[in-house]
Amino acid sequence: MDLDGKVAIVTGAGSGIGYAIAERFASAGASVCVNYLGYEDDAKALAQKLPKAMAFRADVSKAADVQAMVDATIKELGSLDVLVNNAGIERSMPFLDVDEATWDLMLGVDLKGAFLCAQACARAMRDSRRGGSIVNISSIHEDVPFPGYTPYSVAKGGLRMMMRNAALELAEHRIRVNNVAPGAIATPINAKTLNDPDKVATLQTIIPLQRMGRPEEVAEVALFLASDASSYVTGSTYYVDGGMVRYSQPL
Ligand code: NAD
């Protein structure tokens, strides 16, 4: 699995899964645009550390920011072959309490943001006639309900259908589109859980592999889908969850 000569944008790459993906793509030979909104220092330090990289601040929920990021990547790194839609936020709130502002924020980043990035990158990939690969980091909650997290689950479920539609519409341009659906991965988004040993223990009981995952384990699957190793794969979701999505107990 290599990305020699390829250029990738990884959104939300200043921390967690996005950081690991940017590092892994660079070690596979890619030039990387390390997008960030938070974690500015980490994103800039990562871009400095990687052999061919740039850091770019953009709020993925803003169309003008996204277009500026795509234009700057092509100008500075020479082309665009891969997008990883990784940026995301998570808010816990009972269904009956979800307010309009929370709904708009969550759907704006986790779903609209991914759409804006996919569309802007796909247009550039079409124009370059080089083909491309779009990888969305969704969640097992693109499929499994998540009580207390309705906007998050709705956004991830939407990402599943965006991926399937885009895979069909973009195939004629040799642009593949797939999702990586992580289970419970040890990153800052799970800080509350990680700081509570009882919660971690309970969580591990519903993960067949009996542990949380590492960002690097998600990055390996993202690399597979970004690279030509997956040249005949499009319109699919790959779970990286230690079997969590299939968890079931005998009666
Ligand atoms: P994280 O909080 O470390 O990463 C999210 C990143 O997105 C952060 O760097 C944040 O600054 C960035 N971001 C947030 N809003 C943004 C915006 N508007 N524009 C640009 N960047 C923005 O957590 P993570 O676990 O690495 O999350 C990465 C992705 O993986 C998310 O989409 C998340 O939903 C998904 N995911 C994570 C888990 C898990 O257990 N960690 C499980 C399933 C899915």
Provide an overview of this structure.
- With 251 residues, this protein is α/β, with parallel strands linked by helices.
- The protein has a single domain (7-242), classed as Rossmann fold, CATH 3.40.50.
- Helix content is 45%, strand content 15%.
- It contains eight helices and seven strands.
- The protein has helices at 16-27, 40-49, 63-77, 100-128, 150-170, 191-194, 197-205, 215-226; strands at 7-10, 31-36, 53-57, 82-85, 132-137, 175-182, 237-240.
- Helix 4 (100-128) links the parallel strand 4 (82-85) and strand 5.
- Helix 3 (63-77) packs parallel to helix 4 (100-128) and helix 4 packs parallel to helix 5 (150-170).
- The mean pLDDT is 98.
- The protein binds nicotinamide-adenine-dinucleotide.
- Residues 11-12, 14-18, 35, 37-39, 59-61, 86-90, 109, 113, 137, 139, 182, 184-185, 187-190 line the site of nicotinamide-adenine-dinucleotide (NAD).
